[in-house]
Amino acid sequence: MNKFKQIDNYFENEDYRTSFNKLAVNTFDIDFEKWYKRQLFFNKYCAYSFIHKNQVVSNVSINKMELIVDGIKKKALQLGTVMTSPDFRNQGLAAALINHIIEKYEKEYDFIYLFANDSVLDFYPKFGFKKAIESAYVMDTAQLSKKASIINRLNPENADEYKTIIRIAANRVPISAKLSAVNDNWPLMVYCLYEFKNDLYYLKEEDAIVILKREENTLHIYDILSLKPFDLDNIIEKVNDKEDEKIEFHFIPELKRYKVIRTLQERQDDTLFVRGEASLPSEILFPMTSQT
After folding, report:
1. Range 3-8 contact pairs with CB under 8 angstroms and sequence separation of 24 or more
2. CATH 3.40.630.30 residue spans of the chain
3. 138-181: per-residue pLDDT in tens?
4. Fewest CB atoms within 10 Å of the CB: 27, 49, 233, 265?
5. Please, what CATH class does the domain formed by 137-264 belong to?
6. Topology classification of domain 5-132+266-272
């Protein structure tokens, strides 16, 4: 371990940042450099890394999150970008970084959590993380009434429409009192500008943005960005099309007039692990746009 040097909070160092980004591209095919240049980290993302010969060879990043859990604001730490260069694996580097982060932050935050793929499901329990099963929420649209509404798709590349996205995202209200992220410009803006850049729909009457996709007669709703509390029943009545047979919510929906079916789901591609899980509610689904 003596041949490795631990560093953190180093993105202002171009050489280290370039090396980190190269490892991220090779590991996850994710280009963090474009996020950095657009200043999308909002001082909430910090990389903890080991370097060898001035190259980043292992990393675990932290994401400082503010969550609403059963109506109460919580401080949570989400781990992500866990990666080690192939030449340096099986040397305990990622484990050392995780132990360092737990020791440094555990008393400051209500809980620490992460999403893991199926290749590392046996790794995180070694650090006190426990698997938590999230819920899935689906409703049949046959029960829905349809309302006419002015809905426009937003283009983040358009200067005026970009301002609309920024204005609403920066001050959005929680999407759910049961479990949601607040003050979440990171990672929300990354999702808006990249993964969901073609899926942002503006409802003029509500001054709200709905992030949605359609797939095989299913309407997927990922998030709703609004400056004031909104009526979810009213929103889905407006965004629902006649081709939609089901609506799947990627957050905990709070409906008043319509019935939604909740099931437990075990997903191999992004299993939730939590340390300090007593802080979580019995009903769990982290909004898609809060996952890093």
Report:
1. 3/52, 4/50, 4/51, 4/52, 4/57, 4/58, 4/93, 5/50, 5/51, 5/52, 6/48, 6/49, 6/50, 6/96, 6/97, 6/100, 7/48, 7/49, 7/50, 7/51, 8/46, 8/47, 8/48, 8/49
2. 5-132+266-272
3. 999 999 988 888 899 999 999 999 999 999 999 999 999 999 99
4. 265
5. alpha beta
6. Aminopeptidase (3.40.630)
